[in-house]
Amino acid sequence: MVTPEQHDRSAAVLLGLAAGDALASGDDFAWSERTAAAVDLALLMADGRDPREADLWEELGADAEPGASGPGAADPEAVRLAAGRRLLRTAPVALALLDDPVALAEAARLVSSGRGTAVTGSDRTDADADTETDTGAGDAAVLFGLSLRVAILEGRLDPRAGLATLPAEARAAWEAHLAAAGQGRTVDVQRVGAVGGVLQGAWAILGEAGAADASLVEQVISRAAHSGADPASVAAAGALLAGRWGLEAVPVAWRRRLHGRPGLFGIDLVRLGMLSTRSGVPHDPDDPARMDVLR
């Protein structure tokens, strides 16, 4: 059972993710398909589904990679978009499996592997193939998911939260990548893979401190969004900061203006975050808890 403080932090994760994505995408506070991919999965998590269910991925099917259409050469932007979707989908997985880090890590690897997110047949693109063969994607997703878990449950930012779960060789490499990120530096994406590059970019935005208090989150995310950083990295940083500081970290103006597919708004992401965290636990759909956050 989560505490009120933990529930507040978990309720903010999807909101922070969408805010970072929308600000960096520069589309009048509309979140992109990166966030929509995470929301699609969160809607199922809110119904108490387990992200490790095979049937769940069959339900998502080809729609799990929206925006991919027709065969063609994988340009860097297409690969980044696919990689961002893969990493950001770990956020609702972390919410649903907060109480089980082993299951969380397992599900994170599944999400990042391309199972259920792969486009097949004539809708398949080279970008999808590139991210599916990204051997470091699973490690990056585990690190992101377990860092989100620590942010929510313990109220701290720790990029190394999941390092002990990685194979020894990958652990050593990520130690170096995260040390570079702590100094605000990213490394060649060839060294971390496309999905790992998104995560390393997020921690480079946050640096060692992340944000000293909730009031500085707006400054950190706005600066990153206007610096030309990958929107997926800004979204991941937004999720981590919101998971650390809770709803107060996301400015009211952002909450009110956020919107995106599938026809949801900021308040809906708060509800969705709460229900995803209650995955499998009976709840009252009219529960007023924290529903006044946009008023």
TrEMBL record:
- Positions of the region Disordered? 115-134
Which superkingdom does the taxonomy of this entry point to?
Answer: Bacteria
* Species name: Cryobacterium zhongshanensis
The name under which this protein is listed is: ADP-ribosylglycohydrolase family protein
Q: Which InterPro entries match?
A: Ribosyl_crysJ1_sf
